[in-house]
Design a protein that fits this description.
The longest helix is centred in the first third of the chain and has 28 residues. The protein contains 15 helices and 13 strands. Helix 13 packs parallel to helix 14 and helix 14 packs parallel to helix 15. It has a single domain, classed as Glycosidases (TIM Barrel), CATH 3.20.20. By secondary structure, the protein is an alpha/beta fold. The relative contact order is 0.14. The chain is globular and about 90 Å long. The strands form three sheets. It has an eight-stranded parallel beta barrel, surrounded by seven helices. A two-stranded antiparallel sheet has the order 6-7. Bound molecules: beta-D-fucopyranose. Beta-D-fucopyranose binds next to loops. The site of beta-D-fucopyranose (FCB) has 12 residues, from loops.
Length: 464
């Protein structure tokens, strides 16, 4: 009996040591970084001349007057909070000159915007010359103002004809999207060097095909897998078309990444959960581009497939950052783990929707990880906060600036920061409540006034 107890004691001891050893190894591999208040308050060292210090927008959220799969979705009762729609938004389509002047006033030197596929190709193969000319004109105005344009080809919303043929999961999507990219490269290429083929493909796949909360409102793992593969093929086709049309093009994807940490660094289950979600959410798409092979696992559906044209198709890693979450094992839930927002700068949407839970250290850690994985220059393609009270945007921008400076000091090549966003706009299913703008929008008069934090943004713009 005593021998048995001794053996059991040994086994338990070995298990505890192994457990602690693995946790210690993981903790060393994934160190937590903390910026002190003093560091964040010290005078900012300027970014180098040529660093792109910009703002980011998307056509469907800002322009008003679009007709696409989102417009159709918005007409469904209950789809958008308070029944709001994108019909007017900030009327950017008719106010481009005014908005370029607003950018100039806060020392924006780069502007990321998306071109609206549904306007440019209202029917399959039919180009809308007037719409192309309007974007061509925007590119000209930006150059005149000393602002570098960065163009996104797809920021979630699809032409209705494309949605009706099966959207991004349709077998013909890559080819159609490739043609659109070729047209964009041919027409706008001379004035645009920086291209983002896709905005947040993981979000598009997850919201549209797993949660079913966004168009096309599917909850189907096999469809989600098709959408993911379709987006990868679409990216490859678009990148090839852009390179052919515009040999100097710098091409990338804007990836939504969040910092995922174990709730307890002593719980192996929490580590497992955070590492799993991290791989699934943050890196599956970019890994596929690096490896030329798409891998994704969802309950009941798996993707493991070589895709041509992916390797070498990205010149930079576009990083959109908003969230940090703590992951813990939750054996009683269907997913087996649960995610909780971490402390940090929490927007007024905190609680139910932690948009803006964005401590700068998390951005820094994500930049480090992306650089370690891909060794591609990093473009921060989005960072921002919903800040109705206008007290958090300034500290957020200052913190994100610090994260970039830290990363650069460590040798992590980083060439842009695009703040989301220029003017308050249509924030997808949340309507107009979240105010992300460097300018506040009066929805009645459409007047724009500088929002809290725009002074901080202007002051940190690199020297001309
Ligand atoms: C990003 C989206 C962008 C906007 C911001 C707040 O994930 O790319 O369109 O909704 O969040």
């Amino acid at each position: 009996m005593r021998r048995l107890l001794r053996v059991l004691g040994w086994i338990l001891g070995v298990l505890v040591v192994a457990w602690l050893g693995v946790c210690a190894y993981l903790a060393v591999r994934h160190p937590r970084v903390v910026f002190t208040a003093g560091e964040l308050a010290r005078p900012a060292t300027p970014l180098p001349k040529g660093f792109l210090w910009g703002t980011a927008t998307s056509s469907h959220q800002l322009e008003g007057g679009n007709t696409n799969d989102w417009t159709r979705f918005e007409a469904q009762p209950g789809a958008i909070e308070r029944g709001e729609t994108s019909a007017v938004s900030a009327d950017h389509w008719n106010r481009m000159a005014e908005d370029v002047a607003l950018m100039k006033a806060i020392h924006v030197n780069a502007y990321r915007f998306s071109i609206e596929w549904s306007r440019l190709e209202p029917q399959v193969g039919v180009w809308n010359e007037e719409a192309w000319a309007r974007y061509g004109d925007l590119v000209r105005q930006l150059h005149e103002a000393g602002i570098t344009p960065a163009v996104t080809l797809l920021h979630f919303a699809l032409p209705i004809w494309m949605a009706d043929r099966g959207g991004v999961a349709a077998p013909e999507f890559p080819e159609r999207f490739g043609r659109f990219a070729a047209e964009a490269g041919r027409r706008l290429g001379p004035g645009v060097d920086l291209w983002i083929t896709l905005n947040e493909p993981n979000v598009q796949m997850y919201m549209g095909y797993v949660l079913g909360a966004w168009p096309p409102q599917k909850k189907s793992p096999p469809e989600a897998i098709r959408a993911f593969a379709g987006l990868l093929r679409g990216h490859a086709a678009a990148a090839a078309a852009l390179r052919a049309a515009d040999p100097g093009a710098r091409i990338g994807v804007a990836n939504n990444v969040m910092l995922l940490e174990p709730k307890s660094r002593l719980m192996l289950g929490d580590w497992l959960g955070s590492l799993f979600v991290d791989q699934f959410w943050n890196w599956s798409f970019a890994d596929a581009i690096r490896n030329g092979r798409a891998r994704l696992r969802l309950p009941g559906a798996t993707l493991d497939e070589r895709i041509d044209g992916l390797v070498g198709s990205a010149d930079f890693f576009g990083l959109n950052y908003y969230f940090r979450y703590f992951v813990r094992l939750a054996p009683r839930t269907p997913e087996l783990f649960a995610m909780e927002p971490g402390p940090g700068l929490r927007s007024e949407l905190g609680g139910t929707s932690p948009v803006g839970d964005s401590p700068p250290e998390a951005l820094f850690q994500l930049m480090r990880e992306a650089w370690k994985r891909y060794r591609l220059p990093i473009a921060i393609t989005e960072g921002g906060i919903a800040d109705d009270k206008e007290t958090m945007r300034g500290p957020l921008i200052r913190g994100q600036f610090e994260a970039i400076q830290r990363a650069r000091a460590e040798g992590i090549e980083t060439f842009s920061y695009f703040h989301w966003t220029l003017v308050d706009n249509f924030e997808w299913e949340k309507g107009y409540r979240p105010r992300f703008g460097l300018y506040r929008l009066d929805r009645q008069t459409l007047a724009r006034t500088p929002a809290g934090g725009s002074d901080v943004f202007a002051a940190l713009s690199p020297p001309q």
